[in-house]
Amino acid sequence: MGLLNPAAAPGRAVGHQSDGTMKRYARYRSSLAPFGRTVGALSVAIAVLSVLLHRFGLIEAWVMSASLAVAAGFGLTAAVIAFLALRRLWRFGGSGYLDAQLGAVLGLAGAAPVCVVAWVWIFEPPLTDVATDPSDPPVISQNPADLAVEDQAAQFFQDLILERARAVTGQLAGSPDGDAAAVQRALYEDIVPRRYRMPPARLHAAMRRAAEARGWVLTDELPPDLPDAETRAQYLARSPVLGIGADIGIRIRPDPVGALLDVRSVSRSPVPDFTGNADRIRSLLAEIDLVLIETYGDLARLAVLEDELEEMVEGSPSGAEPEEDAAPQIPTPAFKPYFETEDGLPEGEGDLPAPASSG
């Protein structure tokens, strides 16, 4: 065998035989590159299919999580194969660069969701439950069928994988200081109870309109039977991409200034909160403010901030709570939100009609 001819055409090795004739060597073709591309494409297909099936309610959340873990395994395998193929191509030349690059990209894309979840699980605060009053949060009722895990495979996945993941990530990130309530107060100082100068029934109606505007599904409700009675509601919210569910509990109680609103968001996923629960509470409070502004036109006379309440309490005799009749009156709307009868409030009570157009 002769030496390679540097002047030969790319991809063709040419050597001189003993008789002086030219001999062409076979061009190197990577067999790992197409294989890595196929495995990477399989990884992406599994990840996308599992997300779509869960988004349309065809599989449970734990099935999607297990499928994403399998997709991540295929993705990492494809990435390793692709990098090995690129290494051999760099050394020997030949064809297969495009397949190797596609395999690496597809493999990393298939493993990306699990990598992001692992990053969040390790470095984010271990909060899956956020409330405006973490010491006394609203009660969230759940269907016993949702709490019971009947499938043994689901039980195995939760006990073996999730519990071990919590233990490992807890050792890597370290346990947070204080309980969950203290951690939440330190992270989300703006998420506090809200007070409004109006009866709980009117605030409940505004809350219903705000939750419907967010696209949440009502799962449980204690509607107002009297203007000053406590009310509750529970909604199901889903993330826009993965469709991971979260239970939103809302409680409205009578307060010396009118009504006290508390909101709680609990993820149905064991992954620590990645601003999802906190953002849901903030979005609901902001939507309620918009509804009140559209209805009454003056939010400053309706909402009572914590610092304003402290000033009212400090200014009242003997530090007592402010009297209800001492609170500023709310502006009178252009409609009657509810009509009281002997049997309580009729059907459709508390519904805030759409505000009259300015035109």
Write a structural description.
The protein has helices at residues 32-55, 61-92, 97-123, 144-147, 152-173, 180-187, 200-213, 276-296, 306-315, and strands spanning 13-16, 22-25, 129-131, 194-196, 217-222, 231-238, 245-255, 258-267, 303-304. The protein has 359 residues and is of the alpha+beta class. Among the domains are: 32-123; 188-326, TATA-Binding Protein (2-Layer Sandwich), CATH 3.30.310.80. The strands form two sheets. Strands 3, 4, 5, 6, 7, 8 and 9 form a seven-stranded antiparallel beta sheet that branches. A two-stranded antiparallel ribbon has the order 1-2. The longest helix is centred in the N-terminal third of the chain and has 32 residues, at 61-92. It is elongated, with a radius of gyration of 31 Å. The protein starts with 12 loop residues before the first strand and ends in a 44-residue tail after the last helix. Keywords: Membrane, Transmembrane, Transmembrane helix.
